[in-house]
Batch of 3 targets.
Target 1
Amino acid sequence: MDASQSVKQVQKKILEVMKYIDKLCRDNGIVYYIMGGTALGAIRHGGFIPWDDDLDIFMTPSEYEKFKKVFEAENSSTFVLQEWRTTPDYLEYAKVRMNGTTFIEEAFRDRKDLHQGIYVDIMILHKVPENKFIQKLVYYESKFVTLYALSQRNWKPKSTSKKLVLKSLKFMPCKLMAKCFYRRIYKYDDTKTNFKYCYWITPVKFRSGLFDSSFFSDPVDIPFEDTILLGSKKIKEYLEYRYGDYMKLPSKEAQQAAVHAMLFDVNRDYKEYVK
């Protein structure tokens, strides 16, 4: 089987996970938005980006709390909710994983305590005031949280500056600092006016993770593969802001870099590999 067929197998399973999430959300009035490469794939390809092996959605903290409650009430035997509050050394977002499958990433190859089934990412979309100083403060605090979490899973930085910062973490009260920074990241989520949305708990740069509030104010149905998912009414404006000429295909090297899994199996549970 060639690589493209392998990716399609994974995508099919990912879509099963997403259809379950979508049904839970629609049945319970929960709002989410396809984002990043998933939104890009929906508009440019009518579904998955052909070489991509993940699917990402945004939820605000309040929508995520509603989702978590109904997910736990469902008590599914097929799907598992994996989140930062209960998983050690994990970044601030959640994954809905599928039992009976395998999706092992390089960074987690030795984590026997971690569910490593095929998944959908739920990214937490926060609010931040229009004030540039506060935005920068939340941005750098988010970067610290990201770097600290990455340092806990044997991440190897490429740049000299990041290597130096990573070494300096050994001399800081990181857990206490991360706890304080999280408070500010969540501080503005009840803001009703004069705010922007932000998502910086990843390697994303300042501008790329700061969004006009109108980008995520009106969810609409967006065709995706053989189903319909929720996305922004201004999805094309969001994509232009995020990617520029979003209809232009990336280089072959960039396509290869989009693959996350070092090992996957759509029919066997990850526990058969992580021993």
Target 2
Amino acid sequence: MTSEFLAGNELHTQIQYRLIEQLSESERRYRELVENLREIVFKCDRAGNFTLLNKAWSATLGYSSTECLDRSLDDFLHAEDREIWLELLPQLLDKQVVANQELRFHHQTAEIVWLELSARSAEQGEISGSLTNVSDRKRAQAALKEANEALQLRIQQLRVENLERKQTEATLLDSQEKLKQQAEQLEVTLKELKQTQTQLVHAEKMSSLGQLVAGIAHEINNPVNFIHGNLSHAEEYIQELAYVIHLYQVHYPTPTEIQVELERIDLAFLLEDLPKLMTSMNVGAERIREIVLSLRNFSRLDEAEIKPVNIHDGIDSTLMILQNRLKGTESNAVIQIIKEYADLPLVECYAGPLNQVFMNLISNAIDAVISRCIQEAEACPQNSKSTFTPTIRIRTEPVAEEHIAIHIIDNGMGMSEETQKQIFDPFFTTKPVGKGTGLGLSISYQMIVERHGGVLKCLSTLNKGTEFLIQIPIALYH
């Protein structure tokens, strides 16, 4: 019994020794592993004093690991980061958080080293964790930030330099007087743009033009109606007087003084020419009435703002007003107008403003063909005439069931692609200074596209001609 007990006790003792040896070996390997890590491994007590530091502490910060034991971690921290550690310490002890924080440490040489702290509460009220050197990353971030700031500064400098270069080029290209004039014009234009937009310019222009045309039509209409209304009575009175003279000639054939006076005034010719004179006056008065009617139709001031109208009447009224410009001169031949009107329904629209669009487009077409006439005449040899025939074609057509299209086509100078891109811009014009405001096509575009919900396009080929296409809905709803 005693021998068995001793044998068992010896076996138990051997097992304990082996377990102690294995634990010692494991602890040795663990310490060896910890000592060889590149990251700093540490432990500290509740006060934040180091109780364990591996060799990486010396390699990273230059201090001896053994000499730093029992010293507080915040002794090695940058002054601005100590508050961060002191706030984390009680939270770690209460097991509330796992800390991950970048902190600045002082190297033994006084150099600043950035270490990333990763720590948590351990057993027996200790704190264990690691410190990883992130100085290279922080330096790279700082360098990147500095490079980005430098790049932004350089970009700003390049913008300033580019602006200065453009200003210098403009100064070199223009004379001082021209630059002064352009600056004055630009100042005036900017003031106008601040006070009103192109739409208000259009409204004012339309109102002024409509009132002018309507006023002229009204003033002409009254005396013309008076003359036209009295011509029939005058013709009747003249016929009656001629009949009375005839009776005097029958009953008193030879009164000497009357006979002499009748020969002086050539009564036979007078009686023959008076009917012709009256006919001519009637034709003239009727022509004036037609012109007045065209003026009133163009202005449309006596009608509702939106009303179903005959589009062809508006075009014809515009052509009537522009009739004088269609006549030939020494520098250009008569401009031929070719109308290709389709059978269109009444179109609900802003009649007066739409007539202004016709006026702008047809006036531009007239300018284009006159310029082409002058160019062709200058290109012709001496003692020969140009064979160029200035022509403007106006074609209308229905589009599907809800729209109509108006084509205004000329064989004038045409435009380059660059010019076509800008023709609808406010204040853009190719005409000489004082000859155009640059608002006509811009206003026309706004009127067709914005107010009528339509389309206004320009198709042009340089030295061949231009076509403006207007497409608007038949029914306009607002």
Target 3
Amino acid sequence: MVSLKQPNESLEARLRGMVHADAELLALLACVRNLGLNDWCIAAGAVRNRVWQRLHGQTSLLPASDVDVCYFDASMAPDHARAVHNALAAAMPQVRWDVVNQAWSHHFNGLSAVHSLQQGLASWPETATAVGVWQDDAGEVRIVAPLGLEDLFGLRLRRNPAFADESVFRQRVAHKQWQRHWPLLVLLA
């Protein structure tokens, strides 16, 4: 079982500030919020890459390969994520959406079943990737960071210790070439 970290309020405030300053991310959040999902976030590279770019002083964002939308709803059938994807694609067809209901993710990722959105994100390969943002009904930005924000803001690329397969982590580091894009990243084994 993964132990979930307590939030670091100053890092959360920094992340909220970055999100509020990012019109594109705010538009993506509003699009997902309009679907009325329970327990959702935009996560992974859509958040991580933006933070790393800003911490590197990069003003033009690398194009996102996709926008990861995660939600948790065990009451929905496994194919419900396809309907969510289709609704998002209809609303913003220029975006490559990747939608996963974490309640069913164990069927394709080979990991144990999870019982919450936070637990799903806490099972991801890198600590800095396990960060999501969402908007409540009032439009307030909220943060999901079950492994904390310290590695994300500390520019530390670290394997999640709860993620057993180190080879997957190493393959992701080599394939994604994060250190080429963000040379201040420190790879921690």
